[in-house]
């Protein structure tokens, strides 16, 4: 149940019955944060930034998800940081732990030999990626919403939003919005693409006729930047949308197409016998199954998640949206080069092969 604020503006009329009484934004939408109790300060930082830049004008709710109960301190402090309602949900074990067909010994063996792979040593990271790939949208509380905005602890939004991104998606017939597109570490997904190819052979009818496969397979704009990628047009070029930022329509993930795709990957075992990330899994799903014109690059939303910063390039946008294109207050090297100017960005490819600017 909702964590009621002490200081609600009860004088506001509410013409939208699906909204809580203090909510101003009119979309059926919520923020979603999967987070640990130990990440409270980081969660507060992200919320503070999102509230200042966007949500204080709309008061959309927040859904917090965790596989262990949230502490009273976590609930109290995040509910006081939020302008909207806050909900705290316990993830059922079956949605978090490896599914029954996963062989525990085989998983442990892979963990042992993956010490040099980013997060390869961590079992909980695999649970997290598996959850984000196939279970976040199945959490009961999200049945109440159409749109979600994924947020993570320790991120920062660099510009004022100045509009409601949920409304933007709905009015422009978009179902998914991203900010950063980069290359995945190849050693985390040795058999992912092979599995995806088998899926496309078994379920050709699920592949959208206006898909964005070219974004994740063609090579011609890559002048070997040091990525060990194949020259073959039918192989994966490792590009994906960075999923720690997502604004999207939950109904895509609830679709038969996406769930058939997810279950196929889940059966193959790579979430546990390798270290498949939810970013390439979401992304490949979107690129195969969604009309590419329903995918949107939010070029005007500045965003920072270690170690990458994305900021609008236009000086007009930067000034009018009060962007601050430098990270601060974090205890690591500051990276001020815009990610999209870096060779490991996949944005130029999206512009060329996705729904972006055509050139
Ligand atoms: P990175 O962004 O790939 O470096 O991974 P993060 O550590 O940021 O994890 C991604 C998201 O999952 C963040 O929102 C974390 O708070 C969350 N997360 C990661 N591991 C766990 C976990 O074991 N339990 C819970 N509840 N959340 C987790
Ligand atoms: Mn993160």
UniProtKB/TrEMBL annotation:
Entry keyword set = Glycosyltransferase, Signal-anchor, Transferase, Transmembrane
Membrane topology field = Single-pass type II membrane protein
This protein's name: Glycosyl transferase
Entry-linked Pfam families: Glyco_transf_15
Similarity-based family: Belongs to the glycosyltransferase 15 family.
> What does the UniProt entry say about where the protein is found?
Membrane
Active-site feature positions: 246 (nucleophile)
GO: which molecular function terms? alpha-1,2-mannosyltransferase activity
Q: Which SUPFAM superfamilies match?
A: Nucleotide-diphospho-sugar transferases (SSF53448)
Write down any Gene Ontology CC term: Golgi apparatus
One Gene Ontology term from the biological process aspect of the record: cell wall mannoprotein biosynthetic process
- Taxonomy-wise, where does this protein's organism fall, top ranks first? Eukaryota, Fungi, Dikarya, Ascomycota, Saccharomycotina
